[in-house]
């Protein structure tokens, strides 16, 4: 198995899973780069996995279905192009691969992640839920849902690899450094972020540099209280305050 990021729109990644049985792509917002890559390598597309309904994640599906008539599209009930509806806990199989569907709302109310197990390691295609150093904005979901989705991620093994759909790492790390100016791991990651792609990233790495995974730490809470001017009672309120601060950073 090989996983390749196909750039789109300047800061999107369409993730392409290549196997000896065929290919799967995740969140093709633009068909052109995906078709170009597959034609260049004389390959077909067999499955499309969609994380959520925003156009920059599904806008290329119609053209891909025309180019590859055999392709099957997997998505939640709010994805009109999906011909294979999915739900939380469902298992998807493709050849020797198996992936579990997780509902991870927050960014949107019906956001999906795909947890692919391969060679004793998890590969999580997390769309716009978790970014390296950050998290997605809240649109049709709620901050409580996004917090709960992060708590669910925190239960995964440290070596889990996350594949976000955007190259937002450097911008997120500048905010993270604003929250934790004395964190050497953030400074090192910010230096490394000059080279792209910065993804995928391990959960262990994100635990060290992502403020939205560090809301349990007293100094993060104190910093969020200082910057927001609000007394914060629990991890959820810290998470919410950080998201509000990031919105205007």
UniProtKB/TrEMBL annotation:
It is an enzyme of class 3 (hydrolase). SMART domains: Lactamase_B. Its cofactor is Zn(2+). Its EC number is 3.1.2.6. It catalyses: an S-(2-hydroxyacyl)glutathione + H2O = a 2-hydroxy carboxylate + glutathione + H(+). Pathway: Secondary metabolite metabolism; methylglyoxal degradation; (R)-lactate from methylglyoxal: step 2/2. Keywords: Hydrolase, Metal-binding, Zinc. Zn(2+) 1 binds at residues 52, 54, 107, 128. Belongs to the metallo-beta-lactamase superfamily. Glyoxalase II family. This is Hydroxyacylglutathione hydrolase. It comes from Neisseria lisongii. The gene is gloB.
